[in-house]
Amino acid sequence: MTKREGFPSLQGPNAAPKPSAGPEPAAAGLSGIALVVVLTGYALSIVDASIVNVALTSIGDNLHGGSAALELVVSGYGLSYALGLVLGGRLGDAFGRRRLYAYGLTAFTVTSALCGLAPTIEFLVAARLLQGAAAAMLVPQVLATIQAATQGPARARAIGMYGATAALGMVTGQILGGLLVSLDVAGIGWRSVFAINVPIGVAALLLVRRIPATRADAKPGFDPVGTVLFGVTMICVLAVVVAGPDLGWPLWLWSLLAVAAVAAVALVRAERALEARGGSPLLSPSVLSHPGMRRGLAAMMPFSASFGAFLFVYALIAQGHFGFDGLASGGVLMPFAAAFFVVTLFTPRIAAALGSRIVTLGALVQGTGLLLLALVIWLGWPHPSLALVLVGIGLFGVGAALIGPTLFRTILADVPPAQAGMGSGVLVTSQQMATALGATVGGTLYVSLAGWLSTASATVLVLALLGCFSVTVLVISLKLPDPS
């Protein structure tokens, strides 16, 4: 269902696309180097979502930015990133995934340099918006390429590494950001958190031709109505999630959810009508109706929300109560990172033995880790055992490693290779939205509860909420189809 496409050489950041010289020889799957190259771009996009957090104080002091502007430095990237993912995946299906990946990575590298050179806070906000849009162009091509160029055990291993990159990137960003700001590399201060992307991006671009070139057999048509309705839905939901905590949840902000609901209903009707006429909708209802995708996304939402809430609330506790700086608080998450990475290496074998029940096992392990953390904090506060806290964090990582990659495979299992970009765009958008929503809900709940309860009680109640998310994933996992 896919074909190989020619790819114009990149002669610089502003190089324009040139016509393809003709089809390439078919590539034999996805080589190890090709997988590293596509995952490098994905890792940069994930790391940049969090690496800037520990540099905000320095940015504010240097560029004289207020709290609202600094919030936009963080949320602006996430907004443009989430908004463009589905469209980016669709463009990859139409014009070639390797081509869009390379253009996206080029744009990401250039905008990273612009962020590092920003002379004013307004310039930095604009560059971050463009950086998020560039990430939205390249990220959907990663899973789409894996889906189109691999199968069987090779696909399971590649998606496992994709899952590991997603989780480790979020943790690494916090650690790396703190390290770079602390070291003050070359005396450039906070600018190093953006400058580090440039040599890595250039190195990946030099190897981009190692990626197999795939695209849909027939170029999908453009869906202006679906694109507009999807954009309205996303903007309204993201505005509530991002702006709610800072604005104090005013009534007019909640009204945006009603607008989002109306736009979503109109989107579903418009996409069904377009597909019935033989058109090419932005979000294909027939693809989204597959049991694997439908149930997998249903499990992915609480899983990602739990992950986002856990990392955000942990950062509040570590830096607020224990007095850790950004580097130290990130370092305490190393058990999570190590457990996730190690377990991911064996996930394909476990999945081969357990099938979709690996998600059930992961939910049980993750729930056990949350229960242990709740007990340790409740019984040991204000000086809970650090060793037991690390064990609980490690168990949370083990559960995430069992759940995440398997859900990725389940969601994409029924997606035709010709629509791999659209499918991966939907998956990553859902993941990003749920992670942001989890961080917002978890953080707001913790801050609210800590205002009239003890810190220990507030923490335990938030952990109980995350435990409910794990139970939800467990229940859904009982009806998940086998991703193989």
Question: Could you describe the 3D structure shown?
Answer:
With 484 residues, the protein is mainly α. The chain contains 18 helices and 2 strands. The protein has helices at 32-50, 56-63, 67-95, 97-116, 121-149, 152-183, 192-195, 197-206, 224-247, 251-276, 285-288, 291-320, 326-331, 334-354, 357-380, 386-412, 420-452, 455-477, and strands at residues 2-3, 215-216. It has a two-stranded antiparallel sheet. Helix 3 (67-95) packs antiparallel against helix 4 (97-116) and helix 14 packs across helix 16 (386-412). Mean pLDDT is 85; it is low at 1-28.
Q: What is the global morphology? A: globular
Low-confidence stretches: 1-28
Order of helices and strands: EHHHHHHHHEHHHHHHHHHH
Strand content: under 5%
Number of helices: 18
Name the helicity range.
over 70%
Task: Specify the biggest β-sheet.
Answer: 2 strands, antiparallel
Distance N terminus to C terminus?
19 Å
Strand order of the largest sheet: 1-2
Mean pLDDT reading:
85
Spatial extent as radius of gyration: 22 Å
Structural class: mainly alpha
Overall strand count: 2
In short:
By secondary structure, the protein is mainly α. The chain is 76% helix and 1% strand. The chain has a two-stranded antiparallel ribbon.
Name some characteristics of this structure.
mainly alpha; 484 residues; 76% helix; 18 helices; 2 strands
Write the layout of secondary structure elements.
Layout: E1 2-3, H1 32-50, H2 56-63, H3 67-95, H4 97-116, H5 121-149, H6 152-183, H7 192-195, H8 197-206, E2 215-216, H9 224-247, H10 251-276, H11 285-288, H12 291-320, H13 326-331, H14 334-354, H15 357-380, H16 386-412, H17 420-452, H18 455-477
Antiparallel strand pairs: 1-2
